[in-house]
Amino acid sequence: MEPLRLGILGAARVSSLSIADPAHATGARLVAVAARNRERAHEFADRHRVEQVAASYLDVINNPEVEAIYNPLPNSMHAPWNLAAIAAGKHVLSEKPFASNAAEALEVHDAAQRSPVVVFEGFHYRYHPLLNRLLSIIENGTIGELRELDVMMAMPAPEPGDLRWSLPLAGGGADGSRLLQPARHAHRRRPLERRTHLARRNRHHT
Q1: Which domains are assigned to the chain?
Q2: Cis ω on the peptide bond leading into residue 97 (within 30° of 0)?
Q3: Higher pLDDT, 203 or 8
Q4: Dihedral Cα 45, 51, 52, 56, nearest 10 deg
Q5: Which residues touch 41 (CB under 8 Å, ≥6 apart)?
Q6: pTM of full prediction above 0.70
Q7: Lowest mean pLDDT among 34-38, 167-171, 196-200
Q8: What is the pLDDT of residue 174?
Q9: Angle between the 78-87 and 102-113 helix axes, to the nearest 10 degrees?
Q10: Which of 123, 141, 129 is nearest to 183 (CA)?
């Protein structure tokens, strides 16, 4: 079987653990990477043994050696570049969220439905045996009927200049999706009543 041939958009910190290490562990090829800062792209390529440094994200997508795209760009850039990859006939592994809002999500969804490629949002926990066991217990009624599910997430607050505070970059969208995804799976896609309480404390105690 031929190894999967991957192209990476950006040199994000998360890429080391989320794509580079798994690629080497499973025998996939890291064919190309591009970043806004070309020097950073070269550093990333040297560190993770990526075969080529491309001049642009579009060059990565259009590289005939690349069959699948990994998109860890800022949230606001997920949908546009996911759409570009789909249009080029490339499979897509997108960091969450794969779009910034409902309209973008529908556009990416519809494009994927019209295409033979796989478009996958990076929720690896969904395939963990522990979650599958939990869903099985809920489904077969072992613990009774699920009526309410409280989901909490706690993390250190990003630094003030971090892109996750940026509304134009759709910052923070992935954090909300980490809460809603398991709730949706637990309720088996039934409508949810969402009640949100957001507390912002200082960055050392959030």
Answers
A1: 5-122 (3.40.50.720), 125-186 (no CATH)
A2: yes
A3: 8
A4: -70
A5: 11, 33, 34, 35, 53, 54
A6: yes
A7: 196-200
A8: 58
A9: 10
A10: 123
